[in-house]
Each structure stands twice: as C-alpha cells, then as structure tokens.
Fold this sequence. Notes:
Helix content is 43%, strand content 29%. By secondary structure, the protein is of the alpha+beta class. It folds into two domains: 5-12 and 69-149, PH-domain like, CATH 2.30.29; 15-60. Strands 1, 2, 3, 4 and 5 form a five-stranded antiparallel β-sheet that branches. The protein has a three-stranded antiparallel β-sheet with strand order 6-7-8. β3 and β4 form a beta hairpin. It starts with a strand and ends with a helix.
Amino acid sequence: MSEEVIMKFHNSRVAFLKWYVISFLLVVISVVLIFYQFSELGVYALIPTAIGIILVIVSELRRITSTFYITMEKIHPRVGLLSTTETSVSWDKVADFRVDQTVLDRMLNVGDVVVQSSGGGEAPEVLIKKAPKVKRLKELLTSLSHRVKV
C-alpha cells in the first residue's frame, strides 16, 4: 500500500466478548470440578480449561488478523491469517456509510461500520464489526467522503 495510512485498527475485543465469556465459564467449571470431584475425574477436569484457552487464542487470532486501513484515497480491509481477503473501496465509489450502535456499544465507544459503494448490491462493501473509537472513525469517514464529493 503506497498511500499514507491515516488510521489503522483491528476489531475491538467487544466483537469477541461472547467467546471470552464462554472461556471464563469453562475455566470456572474446571475449577469447580477440580475442587469437588478431582479424585474421580483426574486430569479430565482440566479439559474445560484447555477448551477455554483454545477459544481465547482463536478469538485473538481472528481479531488481530482483521486489519482495517484508512487512507486519503480509500478504505482497505485485510482479513485472514493464512488465506487473506483484501478489498479496497476508493472514496469516490463510496455511496453511503452508517454506524450502528447498541446502548452497550455507545458506552464502550465501539460500533459496527457499514460502507456501501455505488454500484454495489444489498450486501455492504465493507463491514467493520465493533470498530474501536467509533466516534473518531465516523468523523474521519465523513470528512473523507465529503472531501471527494465536493
């Protein structure tokens, strides 16, 4: 990418919150099994903890391998570790964008950013789940999309 990157970010950890909660619950189950029935279950009581650790690792890998770049010319998502998917949408092709936020998202300053391009179908051209610092991102997207249309 030859352009100057204005903003680079990954999905927020909030996007994977359910997996972190499940992992925590699996560790709690494992601890309960160890304290109350360890003699009967042996090492099998540690299986929920192992599954929880694997879930956290997979969630973090999915999060850090989704990178979004915003330049003066385009928005450029790159998703994947071994097999990557890269798309670019130049600002003159952006028809519209919106930010969707729940009440919890607003408290955490995250949100889903949906970018529609002109000539695109129903599906969004770029979808950023639980983007961090969404207020700043919205201001940046607004200024860049208006800069091109003027």
